[in-house]
Amino acid sequence: MNAIEVSDLQHDYVTEVINISIGKAASTMSELINDSIKMSVPRIELLPANEAIESFVSKEPRKLSGVCQKFNGCLDGEAFLLFPEENSLSIIKMMLGNSVPVNSMAELEQEALCEIGNIIINSVLGSIADLFHERIDSELPLYISSEYNELIYNTNPEDNIIMMIQVEFILESQSIKGYVSMIVNINSFSEFLKALDKHIDSF
Amino acid sequence: MDEHTIFVVDDSRVSRMMVKSIINNNFPDREVVEAENGDEALEKSASSVRPVFIIDYNMPGMNGIELAGKIKQRSQDACITMLTANIQDSVKNEADKLGVRFIKKPINEEKINSIIVLSSIP
What is the reported pTM? Predict the structure, then answer.
């Protein structure tokens, strides 16, 4: 599938970069919904599409609601913030509190999810960009409602390496799980590894 | 439009609602005007005296920095705060160069209150 070789050192460093980024995103998420968040250690794998899907769906088979956001810059790809569909309205209620009438919440569900996704995904991307003193631009967030395999196949996986960055987070008061996933363009990932090597060499 | 009208510019209706709700609750005497993109913000604020802007960065059409630049060209003493999810140093540096305050989302009462209070200081 892929011709990219990733050394142990590179994998370790990418994992650390993502750890830091996700940590900052967790803090932001906690502030957003006024709840404590537990986050898993990010799992980072380079996988073909079918393995990525199998890996995810074996743990989370439910239909998902969330946000997709394309990005480009020192890294090109798509990022997803996903929740089981049955939980998405609860997330929004936690975010909006009393600032929006209860009878408007369902109507605003998609927009509210887009805003949450925008904040969390940009938190992750921004941290990655700043660590390398580079820039990543993101497009506007899009609402999605789908099963995981459809999401992956819609990203033209043959052109991409599936850099699965899977983080599970749990909102403590409500036991809701959510996921961040990133799909990275194979050529851009190759360039990213070169930038990573320069960065490591500078220490 | 009165002096110090507050223009909330964000393509997210939810964000605009949250900001407006906080301002209406805590500063009920202030007029709030919403815009969902830069062109609409420029048009609606054209005749405003000493407007205050709360602007998102990532919007369709011109982004928040581009909008801030156009506002500053029109009125050097316009009070502009960028309230955004895009927290990268590169964007913050662009905001600093324009003399634009930079506040990270998520939106909360404390952040909005600080924006309004600071904008009232001559």
Answer: 0.84
